[in-house]
């Protein structure tokens, strides 16, 4: 994983070092892999194991970005996204849907997601999308 990090790290990437990302994912292995990857790039990571917990954590913590699995127990990613879009505090937080389900991308965007990534996750593609959607912090002079 180190070569990928070195290849993707740039001045632009460093502007996101203190960003917080909420991962909403019910599968332990997927959750741990995404967490390790994002932490290796310097992000703070919060983890929710289902859609209901994702909504609660997003409202309480207001992360800079959410990676939302679509197929989860308690509350699926579609409904969790809809609920987050109804709250003023979370309306503007970028949500990237994460799914292997064919046709779910369009439905995720209709529910309020800003973008999506397909499973299995392409590491370079995921990191690029994360950086594209995070608010940019200008360096101080």
Summed up:
The chain is built from seven helices and five strands.
What does this structure look like?
With 141 residues, the chain is α/β, with parallel strands linked by helices. It has a single domain (2-133), classed as 3-Layer(aba) Sandwich (Rossmann fold). Helices cover 45% and strands 17% of the residues. The chain is built from seven helices and five strands; from the N terminus they run ααβαβαβαβαβα. The protein has helices at residues 2-8, 11-14, 28-40, 51-61, 77-86, 104-111, 123-133; strands at 20-24, 44-48, 65-69, 95-99, 115-118. Strands 2-1-3-4-5 form a five-stranded parallel β-sheet, sandwiched between helices. Helix 5 (77-86) links the parallel strand 3 (65-69) and strand 4 (95-99). The longest helix has 13 residues, at 28-40. 31% of the residues are buried.
Per DSSP, the total helix count is 7
Order of helices and strands: HHEHEHEHEHEH
Examine the coordinates and then state which fold CATH places here, giving the name of the CATH topology: Rossmann fold
Q: Rg from C-alpha positions?
A: 14 Å
Strand content: 15-25%
Give the N-terminus to C-terminus distance in angstroms: 33 Å
Name given to the CATH architecture: 3-Layer(aba) Sandwich
Number of strands: 5
Shape: globular
User: Spans of 5+ residues with little confidence (pLDDT < 50)?
Assistant: 1-16
Helix content: 40-55%
